[in-house]
Specification:
By secondary structure, this protein is mainly alpha-helical. 66% of the residues lie in helices and 7% in strands. It is elongated, with a radius of gyration of 19 Å. Keywords: Membrane, Transmembrane, Transmembrane helix.
């Protein structure tokens, strides 16, 4: 049976993210993390390396789709790629750490649901839920 006493394994992530995770968790949702320069500059690459797959895929698809130029009249094109890129860069820079933290929690909750479906609800299971959900 899985170890329920350590719900979220933080040993595989950097000390910076461990500290940020603790701050976010202890703030009951009011603290969303610091500005993240790595997420700002490397958007979808950062998402994939941190396991935030959904955000990485959405960001990459958005970048790819908006690179297309729309011809309004001959010689006049609309290009939405730059604006979309800036929006994603700002969003991930602003909330990248929080998104990474929530993705770690969601993986834990998915594991928790798998355990619940196989066993009955216990005090340890309740503790995991309370630790992860602000």
């Amino acid at each position: 049976m899985e170890n329920l006493n350590q719900p979220i394994d933080l040993t595989d992530i950097d000390k910076y993210y461990q500290d940020q995770f603790t701050l976010i968790q202890n703030s009951n949702g009011s603290y969303k993390g610091k500005w993240n320069w790595w997420a700002f500059f490397f958007t979808w690459i950062w998402c994939f390396t941190k396991g935030c797959w959904l955000f990485g895929i959405i960001t990459l698809l958005t970048f790819s789709i908006t690179l297309y130029k729309l011809q309004v009249t001959p010689g006049v094109h609309l290009n939405f790629g730059f604006g979309t890129n800036i929006i994603w860069c700002l969003l991930l820079g602003w909330r990248g750490t929080w998104i990474f933290t929530m993705s770690k929690c969601l993986k834990t909750i998915a594991l928790l649901l798998e355990i619940i479906l196989r066993t009955e609800f216990t005090e340890d299971t309740e503790k995991i839920t309370n630790d992860c959900i602000p």
